[in-house]
Amino acid sequence: KPRLILVLGDQLSTDISSLRMADKERDVVIMAEVMTEATYVPHHPKKIALVLAAMRRFAMALREDGWTVAYSRLDDEANTGSIPGELVRRASEFAVEEVIATTPGEWRLIAALNDLPLVMRQLPDDRFVTSPKDFADWAKGRKHLRMEWFYRDVRRKTGLLMDGNAPAGGKWNYDNQNRKPAPEDARPPKPPGFPPDAVVAEVLDLVKDRFAGNFGQLHPFEFATDREQALEVLDHFISHTLPSFGDYQDAMVMGDPWLWHAVISPYLNLGLLLPMEVCLRAEAAWRAGKAPLNAAEGFIRQIIGWREYVRGIYFFEGPDYTSRNMLDHSRPLPAFFWGSETHMHCVDEVVGQTREHGYAHHIQRLMVIGNFALLAGLDPGEVHEWYLSVYVDAFEWVEAPNTIGMSQYADDGLVASKPYVSSGNYISKMSDYCTGCQYDVRTKTGARACPFNLLYWHFIERHRDRFLNNPRMAVIYRSWDKRDVGQRKKIVDDATDWLARLDTGEIV
Ligand code: FAD
Ligand code: SF4
Q1: Any atom of ligand 2 within 6 Å of the Cβ of 74
Q2: Structure confidence at residue 187 as a pLDDT band (50, 70, 90)
Q3: Are 141 and 101 part of one and the same domain?
Q4: Ligand 2 proximity of 375 Cβ (cutoff 6 Å)
Q5: 162-174 pLDDT per residue, tens
Q6: Is 507's pLDDT higher than 90?
Q7: Could you tell me if the CB of 424 is within 6 A of ligand 2?
Q8: Which residue, by CA, sits nearest to atom 5 of ligand 2?
Q9: What is the rounded average pLDDT for all residues in the chain?
Q10: How far apart are CA 53 and CA 272, in angstroms?
């Protein structure tokens, strides 16, 4: 009897465990574009288009390679609209009782597959460098689950950037060299873009018809949609951008969303690129003298450190992780998260860029949008849904620990050892956003004061009980408490007033 081999939209790797277990002569690969997946949050139209186009391309490649593929298009009349529904329908069509799948990257889908009235085998997703079990073994008995210690273990395990038992260059981490603002005169070339061919154009029409109301601009669409194109993006990064990636990875510049970033997260998360191959390329560039160590190490740490670590946290912490709210924040998302006007130029730039491209780099996500959300006390559940919707690389296993944990501190410091909050000063140092802003970054109180300056101290004051004894925050409280009482009161009162007027919509 044939079996159904399920390949999900973010499992587009020919070497995925479900396909490795399958028999090309006997089994039927099932791939399905379904409304439940396209609508569980209001995804950016570019994200929906990217996933559907890459799925169609992958299915075509499988067929060319001799596989039988039962492919459901979103607009097929018989489409039941959900992954379980399509599995049941196809099982009856092909008289199949058994389904082989690679475990999905979301609790939601894992549970849905477990509830099926079919024999279901969920194999581990071994495209990662570490498994959830590796993470659980590492986490066992530890008081703090800090990324840095996990990362060092993965370096030892993989041998990446190692000289024997020691880290290359003598240090594990070169982050202190990686915080430079962008130079005035140098910008790397833009990553390669791919004009839509007939397959992509058809998907774009479908997305335009069905999801026109979602936040985000569909055109122009230039993302890579197959492995060959994704490899071109990687090649471009390794040759042109990696050498300065380390130095300028935190920099932000008006009108240039890509800067020195690789823009490969969508391809890694869909499975078009694999983490180890990407890291080996960066290491080889360093060993060949084509990229400095701080760049190669900084880049590799994002992938075998942060990316593996957040996946470990997601599976270790369980399905309730996304509803954590340890700081009791409850303010709804202001309308400017969805593109309406705001006078905060930094927020306006990053939201505008997100709407246009479905992309923002790490520091824009963390220190502009995330920083504002945390300072203003926005509901972390709503913030989580926003990030899951608006970025083309957003899948829950990677997005949630970054948002709930790293950015919003809603997991009570499991991921972040201190909250990622800053006043306007940090944004001013790392970007050119403050030029032309209606607020003044140097002003601390009054109507023109940068809201980040006001809200920063409001945050510090309103969470005094929680953070006063945090060793990384003590110095901040000491300097705040040394200030004149009247000055402190004025700042907190102005911040309270600003938030009240934000709530009424009086200020934007
Ligand atoms: P580069 O800066 O060039 O980095 C290279 C690669 O490292 C990335 O492609 C990515 O795969 C990996 N990486 C870097 N930082 C992280 C990180 N913190 N966690 C996991 N992987 C990382 N990344 C996602 O892939 N999907 C998300 O939904 C997502 N949501 C985020 C939400 C918030 C609030 C924050 C602060 C970060 C989020 N990130 C997410 C991490 C990071 O911002 C993106 O991976 C990165 O911006 C992708 O762009 P790039 O490929 O140009 O990355
Ligand atoms: Fe953002 Fe404040 Fe700078 Fe305006 S002044 S761009 S609000 S940091």
Answers
A1: no
A2: confident
A3: no
A4: no
A5: 999 999 999 999 9
A6: no
A7: yes
A8: 441
A9: 97
A10: 12
pLDDT band at 185 (very low <50, low <70, confident <90, very high): confident
Helix, coil or strand: residue 199 = helix
Q: Is 387 in the pocket of ligand 1 (CB under 6 A)?
A: yes
Q: Are residues 138 and 275 in the same domain?
A: yes
Pairing mode, strands 162-163 and 166-167: antiparallel
Distance from residue 450's CA to the centre of ligand 2 (Å) = 6
pTM above 0.95, yes or no: yes
Q: Are 80 and 89 in contact (CB under 8 A)?
A: yes
DSSP code of 387? H
Residue 391 CA: which ligand 1 atom is closest?
28
Our answer on whether the CB atom of 259 is closer than 6 Å to any ligand 1 atom is: no
Model pLDDT for residues 366-384, shown as the tens digit of each residue: 999 999 999 999 999 999 9
Report whether residue 310 contacts ligand 1, using a CB cutoff of 6 Å.
yes
Q: Is the pLDDT of residue 425 over 90?
A: yes
346 pocket-lining for ligand 2 (C-beta < 6 Å): yes
Residue 179 sits in the same domain as residue 71: no
Check whether residue 240 and residue 342 sit in a common domain: no
Quote the ligand 2 centre to 278 CA distance (angstroms). 36
What's phi and psi for 68, nearest 5 deg? -90, 120
Supply the range of the domain harboring residue 251: 132-192+225-316
Residue 65 CA neighbour count, 13 Å, CB half: 13
Q: Is residue 330 in some structural domain? A: no
Please tell me if the CB atom of residue 428 comes closer than 6 angstroms to any atom of ligand 2.
yes
| Closest approach atom of ligand 2 to CA 440 | 5
Number of domains in the chain: 3
> How much is the pLDDT for 186?
81
Nearest to 226 by CA among 48, 14, 7: 14
- Are 99 and 165 in the same domain? no
Give this complex's ipTM: 0.99
Mean pLDDT of 175-181: 86
Closest residue by CA, ligand 1 atom 43: 362
* DSSP strands (E only) in 129-237: 162-163, 166-167
Kindly report the backbone phi and psi dihedral angles of residue 253, in degrees, each rounded to the nearest multiple of 5, phi listed first: -135, 130
Residue 212 belongs to a domain: no
- Strand 4-6 to strand 68-72: parallel, antiparallel, or no bridges (unpaired)? unpaired
Ligand 2 atom closest to Cα of residue 438:
4
- What is the pLDDT confidence band of residue 35, given thresholds at 50, 70 and 90? very high
Same structural domain, 341 and 436: yes
233 in contact with ligand 1, CB cutoff 6 A? no
* Contact (Cβ atoms closer than 8 angstroms) between residue 396 and residue 385: no
Does the pLDDT of residue 179 top 90, yes or no?
no
C-alpha to C-alpha distances, 448 to 121, 276, 343, 489, nearest whole angstrom: 60, 49, 11, 17
Ligand 1 atom nearest to 361, measured from its CA = 47
Report the DSSP beta bridge partners of residue 256.
253
Over residues 284-338, the pLDDT tens digits come to: 999 999 999 999 999 999 999 999 999 999 999 999 999 999 999 999 999 999 9
